[in-house]
Write a structure and sequence with these properties.
Helix content: 10-25%
Largest sheet: 6 strands, mixed
Radius of gyration: 15 Å
Strand content: 15-25%
Order of helices and strands: HEEHEEEEEHEEEH
Number of domains: 1
Distance between the termini: 38 Å
CATH class: Alpha Beta
Length: 179
């Protein structure tokens, strides 16, 4: 798959900054650098446990935490990027293009609109599936391809890639408590 060429000079300038991959990472969204919020305990546990769950069930995809993606003119760093193995090369660096499946975990002080705009941009550039997890509301917004989002809760089974099974909203929310 050919890598998209970065044509936006503001994005190029942003990507040359030395501190963008510090913790928490910086993203380039809507033409401006924005630092991601520092994750909470529940956010961090959910991120780790969900990556482990997906990777234990999938042979065709790899789930990766905080992987910088270059999707001109944006450079998002999804909480979890799930990428088909044949798209991951042997060289270190950001993912050129949108992840196949992206998962964002909304922090209380994070703009839902900004997250949705990033998700929509990725969906229009190749992302097949996107989740926006709201721990506080115990809901997950799900976009498939470029369809309108559906909101899942409780025992609803979530759509996945690669036939990953038995992921419900309840299970995802309990991952915030798993050590």
């Amino acid at each position: 798959m050919p890598s998209p060429t970065i044509t936006n000079s503001a994005l190029e300038k942003f990507l040359q900054q030395p501190n963008i991959d510090g913790s928490p990472a910086w993203e380039f969204i809507q033409g401006h650098p924005q630092q991601k919020p520092m994750p909470s305990l529940f956010h961090s546990r959910l991120q780790r446990n969900l990556v482990n769950k997906i990777n234990s069930q999938s042979k065709a995809y790899e789930a990766i935490q905080e992987l910088r993606c270059i999707v001109p003119p944006l450079s998002p760093v999804p909480d979890i990027a799930i990428v088909k193995n044949d798209r991951l090369g042997n060289e270190d660096g950001p993912l050129q293009g949108a992840p196949d499946w992206l998962i964002e975990i909304r922090s209380p002080d994070q703009s839902t609109l900004d997250l949705q705009n990033t998700i929509l941009h990725c969906l229009s550039n190749g992302t097949q599936l996107a989740w926006l997890i709201d721990i506080q509301r115990q809901q997950i917004w799900v976009w498939e391809h470029q369809e309108l989002p559906l909101i899942y809760s409780g025992t609803d089974t979530l759509p996945t890639l690669d036939n990953i099974s038995n992921l419900t909203v309840e299970l995802i929310i309990t991952m915030t408590q798993q050590r």
